[in-house]
Amino acid sequence: MKFKGIFLTALAVVLTCSCTNLDETVYDQVTSDNYYNTKMDVIRAVYRPFEHGYYSVQSRQVIEELAGDQVATWKKDDWWDDGGKWRRLHYHTWTTEEEVIKTEWDGCFTGTMQCNSVIDDLNTLDPDKFGFTEAEFEGLVSQCRTLRAWFYIRLLGMYRNIPLVASSKVSSDTVAQAKPQEVFDFIEKELKECIDLLPAKEGTGGNGTAQGQWTKAGAAALLVRLYLNAEKWIGEKKYTECETYAENIIDGVYGTYSLGKTWDEVYDWQNEDCPEVIFAFPSAKGYSHYVYSGDMFWWTVPARTVANYFGDTKAGNGDHNCKYGFSPSLAPDGTPYTTELGRPVAKFQKYPEDYRLKLYKNLGNSKREGMMLFGYLEYVENGVTKRVVSPTGGYDLYLRDMVADFGSTPPDEVPSDQTSDMLHGDHNSGWRYCKYPFYGDDDEGQMQSDYVEIRLPEIIYSLAECKFREGDAIGAGKLLNSVRRRNYPEDVVESYLYAPEGPVQLTESELLDEWGREFISEGRRRTDLIRFDKFCTGVWWDKEADGDSHTEILPVPRDVLNSNSALRQNPGY
After folding, report:
1. What are the average pLDDT values for consecutive 10-residue runs of the chain, which has 573 residues?
2. Which of 377, 264, 370, 365 has its CA nearest to residue 320?
């Protein structure tokens, strides 16, 4: 077992002490006066909100991806309808009682209040008593302030009109909504101040044991997110500010970052050594690894028997399942769909030598190739080649870039029922994907990948978008090419680059497609579609344009409204 970052190191120390020291002080009540007794108590308190923050990314993933055009959860035989809640996300017909919408609200506000509590506590403590310098203590406070800003960015982007609470002495259950501009200004001020207080990354490699801690570049990257979406969130363009902080990060003002050598290095089991990672939540088998949860990447593959394909039967994370799949590019009879949006497989196939298009395979010794699952999934068991079988119906799976009731229909035949929508699919329907590796039981890297929240290509693509919006398509294309080069073999890459370095013309539609390829299923597609004015007006597989734009903002959950009379529902609900 390798320990990653201060989270797991601190946890290991705590567990060791609990096994060897049986002297226990019992308190009737735990308060800041009696909780903080050692240096480790302070560290545990500071990083508790980080553990919650990592856990909370699951609800964001569901909303951002299933409300977008690239990923969907359709009915598979008699699986995965679940009362229509995934259809409602796909169709943008959600209600104020949706569980996942309330989970995101509660998760983010729980995180902000945990941060507030720690910040308030630390502001009353004497650093010297715990063996900290003033600067170190201020750095710990800045960690929580930055994490709190991260939570508020999510809340602003999802709900827009939210309570703003910066003290543990005030409950968000009693406060009225602040104006979006007020929340924006608070986030901006916090992050600018924290950039000065946080450490810069050291060295030219990855974050190493500092994985999971905010740095100057991490706080600056959150400002890039804030400014990139400002026009939608507060009605004011902030692209110039976005460019400034993006250029600072790229130029190494806050530490040295660089691209990984391959597309998948940043997702792999040793990604704490990848220089592309700006901020990631540490993971390890047997400890926190929410990146491999059902609402993240554990359920992006076919159900049950696919464990034979990966050889990860002893991963200890339960069976795989088929929640997520890529929205289809083809009708059941093979006719291509022609919508501007969606069709993610076809968007990848526009550049057919893309390494990510390869069939995912574990190569042994914690190495893999490819990202996609398609066609028959074959594996060898006791010297015999077998195929993964559907968990219902007993047919050999043949994954198609289509959605319909295929059953045992051979790959070269058209099913008798050609209905293709969220209610008519099966386990053969849709390509699946493995962005993070599913290593086998004998591989050291099994379930060791840290969850990457911010990586350098986000900053490069954000800067490219700013330049494109200013009319500099050439400058934007060069920035995108700096990342795209690693996705294709050297002998063909020149034919896939944007002008003037290659023949491909960078249009607004192509820019959005490129965001989709590079960051597919990374919990941001809804936000990107909204920024390009495509979320409500766009059409994709089994999704017509919305009647208006109110679904760009989620509703305040009904239970939350009922518990806080000071809140008002968002327009349109």
Report:
1. 44 32 37 79 95 98 98 97 98 97 98 97 95 94 98 98 94 90 98 97 96 98 99 98 98 98 98 98 96 97 89 90 97 98 98 98 97 97 94 94 97 95 98 98 96 98 98 98 98 97 98 98 98 98 98 98 96 97
2. 377
Ramachandran sector of residue 533 (left: φ over 0; alpha: ψ -120 to 50; beta: rest): left
Structure-token pair, residue 9? 């190191």
Kindly report whether the peptide bond that precedes residue 500 is cis, defined as omega within 30 degrees of 0. yes
Strand-pair partners of 433: 372
Phi, psi of 27 (to 5 degrees): -115, 140
N-term to C-term CA, the chain: 49
Q: What is the pLDDT of residues 420-437, one digit of tens each?
A: 999 999 999 999 999 999
For the record, the structure tokens of 224 come out as 């890039």
User: Smallest Cα–Cα separation from 453: which of 125, 213, 196, 199?
Assistant: 213
Residue 395 CB: number of other CB atoms within 10 A? Answer: 16
What is the rounded CA–CA span in Å between residue 552 and residue 413? 40
Q: Scan for tokens 């009362």, then name that residue.
A: 83
How crowded is the C-beta side of 8, counted as CA atoms within 13 Å? 21
Structure tokens at 364: 């042994």
Residue 550 CA to residue 558 CA, distance in Å, equals 17
Distance CA 114, CA 50 (A): 9
Q: Using CA atoms, how far apart are residues 97 and 401, in angstroms rounded to an integer?
A: 33
Residue 414: CB atoms within 10 Å: 15
Complete DSSP assignment for 237-303: --HHHHHHHHHHHHTTTTS-----SSTTGGGSTTGGG-TTEEEEE---TTS--GGGSTTTTTTSS-S
Kind and range of the H or E run holding 90:
helix 85-91
| Contacts of the segment 332-337: beta carbons below 8 A, 24+ positions apart | 332/402, 332/403, 332/404, 332/406, 332/414, 332/415, 332/418, 332/419, 332/420, 333/414, 333/418, 334/402, 334/414, 337/541
- Work out the number of other CB atoms within 10 angstroms of the CB of residue 82: 11
Q: Measure the CA–CA gap between 566 and 573, rounded to whole angstroms.
A: 17
